[in-house]
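ingest -> validate -> predict -> emit
validate: passed (alphabet ok, no gaps, 284 aa)
predict: started
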Amino acid sequence: MIRINNITRGRFGNRILQYNSLMQISKQSGLEASCGDWEGRKIFSGILQDKPSANEQKQLSWTDVIHGSINELPNDVDFTIDDPAYCLHNVFFKVTHSDPRDFFKINDEYGVELDENKTNVGIHFRGTDILGGDGNNGREIHEPEYYINSVRAVEKEFDNTHYYLCTDDMNFVSFVNTYTFLRDNGISFSIGDTNNFVLDFSLLSECDVLISSSSTFVICAAFIGKKDKKIIHSKEWIDKNLKHELWNSKPTTQEARDLQLSFDNFWVEVNSGGGEYYKPWRIL
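emit:
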């Protein structure tokens, strides 16, 4: 059996990625899957329940997944991918060989229907959390110019656009400047629900185009819901990962450094074209 006993302490995007790893590894290895409680059970239909087992439990770490053979795991042990296994976006391209939409279907309660006669464009802005520990002291900031240049690129390629601005921080400069640009240029837009991240996620998942941040929240919205989205990423952000710029200046162990590189390499893969279920359209 492959198990999540306790969902990761990370935010919603990391939780989706951990569950994706569970389901993908289960399918490839032939091991039955089990998952403890998390908010995804309310948001998505068909999320697995916790299944008891008397087997020995052994952690399956991100290094095991990346460097090992998933289809050779024995079936007399329960493998867990709880923290600190970190089987998140660093293992996404290694494990994802089935469409995540097969096991991430948003419940009707949270579903949205966008105007099919428009080109619906979702823009995700991270807020001031990227100035703290989660954002590694600003490393993940996407400047206003990235968002505005992305809007210009979309306007050149598509007609009858409508933009959805999704964030939990409407005071952040990138949001303010993009809002002002859209307003001053008469471009149709609306603001998502700053008090309900699930509705924002559902909205982003149904857009035709995503102007993405570095957040796993919008990464997951890209591979759930509407297929064949046009995904835009920041070249400045990609370049930081290609160069493997340190997340912070604190001394670090080799293990921590290797973990950073594994997360950086998700973006290296994106720069190289991604995979079947996650392909960038533009890097600007």
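The first strand starts at residue 2 and ends at 4.
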